[in-house]
Each structure stands twice: as structure tokens, then as C-alpha cells.
Amino acid sequence: MSSIATETNLDIQKIRADFPILSQKVNGKPLVYFDNAATTQKPKQVINAITQYYEGYNANIHRGLHSLAEKATTAFEATRTTFQQFINAAESEEVIFTKGTTDSINLVATAYGRKFIQPGDEILVSGMEHHSNIVPWQMLCEEKGAILKVIPVHKDGAISIDEVKELITEKTKMVSVVFASNSLGTVNPVKEIAQLAHQAGAVMMIDGAQAASHCKVDVQDLDCDFFATSGHKMYGPTGSGILYGKRAILEKMNPYQGGGEMIKDVSFKKTTYNDIPYKFEAGTPNIADIVALKAAVEYINALGKENIVRHENEITAHAHKRLAEVPGINFYGTTENKVSVVSFTLDNVHPYDAGMMLDAKGIAVRTGHHCTQPLMDHFGIEGTIRASFSVYNTKEEIDFLAESLKDIVSKFS
């Protein structure tokens, strides 16, 4: 937890009031939601934006000339501009709307990979990747006769830039690395990796699913060629996300899917494709949730990402301190540069048992391999208990988690 700061100016109780779901009880206990790495809860500003769309201007976009269609199109494209500013893309046309990070990575693996990856080429990922940043590349390698190489993960959950240097060769054509690990919280040196990739003539993709609401994201400064993230992990709706790509690369790529919107002209002899970003947005999109995604970005901006990160760093540091008191606890992902994720196991207690017993107390955590089975295999474990925190979590909730874990451990001793 780098740069642990003093208490923020955020009014956490006021923020909690923005999230209706947090006021409920689970199993008769107040909900303690520590599964934010899987999905964050949604503030009423986002929920209201969805309702306002369906109640006020539900219409299909881009092709209609009537008033509702024009209003829906304006709102939809406003999200594109807002996201462009949020990640500092050079232009809004470099922001493509997708269903989320998984969809975005598959788009790149298909639309870029099938065209440019050749037999014998190498694709480099890290050992801490989510399955969404492994399987699409495996599928591409099988199809094209390419080779998947893996950056090893050290005991503290970090990777070494020196090992990245050794693994990138003249055969490397694509490097795709997670910005922040969903299982460990580790923040990777993606800017430095992008530099190494480009020196070798390779293309760099960043899986930013866990980073968008926790880390500074400036795609021009990072100099990545692609950046993907999901709305639902940054207080936005499920089924919404973006793919950023540099214009020069996007224009060379084939479309991902065929259909309406992605065309300029269609005949039975030949179809000409639309300009970016529409070339990659076939069919009627998830309009309501994309519109509401703008409200999620605005919510983060209103709180200030620096304030959010400072608060999350404080409670993550507090979590490490308090959970260290639990007998038989083993932490995974202990590097200092990390986001608000704490993964651990308990001696003699299966993660699933611990998860169910915590749920009985109203505490929601994630248990299992977290869609990172190769990483769990690397550590020689079936899975972990993962507590992941957001801006609305408190130290008091963490104290309750620590005491609850002590109680669970006592039952198995």
C-alpha cells in the first residue's frame, strides 16, 4: 500500500447513503460488502440514469431522426467523450464500447490477432492473469501456430521487469498484462513493459479491469496500444465497458462482428465498413447501461480518484494489520504497490467453509481461484479468501471481519 496518507476529507457515511444496497441486512446482519473486486455496488446516480433513459428517451441510436433518437444518441456519445477524458485518450473515436474487459480482449485477439499474428510469433502474458487474458490468447495461438509465454510471479505476488526483458524477443508480437491483479492486488509496471514491448516491435495491451477506479489511467502516458476495462468494477452497470485503441492500429484491424452500424454500404457484391469506433460496434448496443456509465465516471470524478485511493489505501493497510492478528492466516500478494485487495488462507479451514460462515454474519467475501487458476497452481493452493475494498467500506467493517475470522478459526482448532 504505497503512500499511506492521513484520513481523507471524504464523508464516508454520506457516500454510503448513495448506495441503496448497503442499507440492507443479510441473514439478519447488516451487510458488509467486501467483494468489490468481483463487482462494485452502484450509487443511486447510476441507477437513476438507467431509469431516466427508459422512462424519458428510450430509442435506438445513430440512425433515427426523431427527437427521442437524437436525445438517446447525444447521451450515448456523451459517455464516449467522458471516457475519453477519463483515460486521456487522444480522441473520442479511440474509445469503443463493449460488454466489458472480457469482450474487449476477445475483440483484440480476434480482430487484431487473426490478421497480424503469424506461426511462430510469441504472445506474452503474466502468471497472474485473469482467465479472460489467457484463454483468448491460447485460442489464437492454437489457431495461428503462435507461442504463449508467461512472465513468472514471485512469492510476494510481483513480477520482475528484468525477467520481462529476458522474455521479450524479436519474435514477440503481442504483450497483454493486467494493470492490477484481481487475485493479489498487485499493480504491475505496465508503462515500463509497454516501452520494452515497443522496443521489440510488439503491441501492448493492458487489462485495466481492476485499475480504472483505483489507479491513475493515462493511456497516452502509458503508451499502450490497447486498454480494456469494465463498467461494473467502477460503480457502473454490468454489461458495459470500453476498449481503447490507438487510431492507427484500429484502422488496420478487421471488424469484430458484422451487422448494422459497422457498415457504410452493403450490397450482395461487397460491403464497405464504417469508420472507427463504429466499425467495432455492430448491432444495437447496450444503450441504457452505456448512458449510465457516464454517471459512474462522473461519480468517481466528483469524489476525486486521489481521495478514493487514499481512503482505500488506509483501510487496506488497516486490514493487513488487523487480519495479521488472526491465528493461522497466510497472505498472498504482499508487495507494497497494490490496490485494495487482501487475499489469504486459513490453516485447517477451507476457503469455501470460511466464506459460508462469514456470509452467515452478513460479510460478503469471494472464495476460490478468482478466475486465476494458473496463479493458484503456482502457489500450490486451491484458492484463497479474498476481501476487496471500495470507497464505501470502513475500518469498523474490517474490525468486524477480523473478529469474525478469529471466531471461525477457533471453531476449527
From TrEMBL:
Residues 32-401 form the Aminotransferase class V domain. It catalyses: (sulfur carrier)-H + L-cysteine = (sulfur carrier)-SH + L-alanine. Keywords: Pyridoxal phosphate, Transferase. InterPro entries: Aminotrans_V_dom, Aminotrans_V_PyrdxlP_BS, Cys_dSase_SufS, Cysteine_dSase, PyrdxlP-dep_Trfase, PyrdxlP-dep_Trfase_major, PyrdxlP-dep_Trfase_small. SUPFAM superfamilies: PLP-dependent transferases. It comes from the Bacteria. Its EC number is 2.8.1.7. Pfam families: Aminotran_5. Its cofactor is pyridoxal 5'-phosphate. Belongs to the class-V pyridoxal-phosphate-dependent aminotransferase family. Csd subfamily. Catalyzes the removal of elemental sulfur and selenium atoms from L-cysteine, L-cystine, L-selenocysteine, and L-selenocystine to produce L-alanine. This is Cysteine desulfurase.
